[in-house]
Amino acid sequence: MSISPAPRKPVTLYVCGVTPYESGHMGHAFTFSMFDVLVRFLEANGQRVKYVQNITDVDDPLFERARRDGVDWRELAGRETQVHIRDMKVLGWRQPDVMPRVSDEIKQILAAASKLHSLGFAYRTNALYFDVSKYRGYGRLSHLTRRSMLRKLRHEDLLGVVGPEAKQDPLDFALWRSSRPDEPAWPSKFGDGRPGWHIECTAMAMHYLGEQIDIHGGGRDLQFSHHESERAQSESLTGKKPFARAWVHTGLVRYEGHKMSKSRGNLVKVSQALQRAPAAAVRLYLVSHRYGRDWTFEWKGLTRSARFIERMRKFLADDARFAHDGPRLEPGRRLMAEFNAALADDLDTPRAVRVLRAAVRQGDAPAVRAMQEVLLGSAALS
Ligand SMILES: [Zn+2]
Q: Residue 310 Cα, ligand 1 centroid: separation in angstroms?
């Protein structure tokens, strides 16, 4: 990712948001804190940003969880969406400009599915499927061969049924399908039903940001099949390439030797971390890692971040107490140049954090405040 500001036009950013059934763990917080640093860095440098992050409240895992727990999917989705927004507010984000919910966007989604059908990119059997063979380059975004794509789908239990009444090819995916009795259903010319996962994001991204967007982001586990499929259907829909100028994927967070995941049950919740450290320390710990790399959450790492945040808090408090007689100083040019160079270099946040530490050591309060705003947002220091 290279970032070169062009202040006249806003940068358009679409980030795949949560499926609201088990929100608020460190993996989510890492992804959304990273995109928050990106947005704040661009805005601090005079670049406007239009940021859309969706809520996937129509999706299989959500319905499965609602079924398992015997609750209404709307209730579960509403509650978990609130958890997500509350956690990210505490971690100091600048809320996205639009946070569309799939259940409010069915009209756009259906229009996109319908257009793909009329253009000949989709076919109807027991559902409406996107025909992957009509798109050249399926697999190129994630650099996967057909064999590894099939292996991944099998692993995620997304292969489905192939046959004359179903998919023609196991890589094809549903744009519109019928709903189970306890799932929501919307009327359509393809029968009452609900959208497939990938078309939801295509439709919402295009509706709010246009046919081509600057940056499309999400966790790396979304690269295949979600983003691969989104790209194929979006470019088929408009005939314009690329759909996204940059795809930005965040690494996965491990805990006790394994990827943090709902299925394994090794999630560290944001709320648990906040019991042990102030919000700014949690956020600092997250952004001390490169956005694209996998890393392991460790409590001692959070403790180290908390120690630095306490030092920084005291330093800023002393500065505020003694500084108001004299003239307000500008942040040191050299420190700010180093800080901006680090973030302009593919969002190297660990390097930017080192510059922030140097600014505290050198006693440059205006620089510390400017860097704090970009790296830690509005997260509280105590
Ligand atoms: Zn998405």
A: 37
- Average pLDDT rounded to a whole number, residues 2-21: 83
pTM above 0.85, yes or no: yes
CA distance 168 to 146: 15
Q: Among 311, 316, 313, 285, which Cα is nearest to 380's?
A: 313
Q: Measured between alpha carbons, how far is 115 from 52 in angstroms, rounded to an integer? A: 23
Task: Kindly tell me if the per-residue pLDDT of 166 is higher than 90.
Answer: yes
Kindly give the distance from the C-alpha atom of residue 226 to the centroid of ligand 1, in angstroms, as a whole number. Answer: 7
Measure 53 CA to ligand 1 centroid, in angstroms. 9
Distance 218 CA to ligand 1 centre (A): 7
* 277-376: CATH superfamily: Isoleucyl-tRNA Synthetase; Domain 1 (1.10.730.10)
Instruction: Report domain 11-259's class.
Output: alpha beta
Q: What is the pLDDT of residues 261-305, one digit of tens each?
A: 777 888 999 999 999 999 999 999 999 999 999 999 999 999 999
pLDDT tens sequence across 297-343: 999 999 999 999 999 999 999 998 886 666 567 888 999 999 999 99
Q: Tell me which residues have their CB within 5 A of the ion that is ligand 1.
A: 16, 201
Domain with CATH 3.40.50.620 in the chain: 11-259
b/e map 99-113, b = 16+ CB within 10 Å: ebbbbebbebbbebb
Domain with CATH 1.10.730.10 in the chain: 277-376
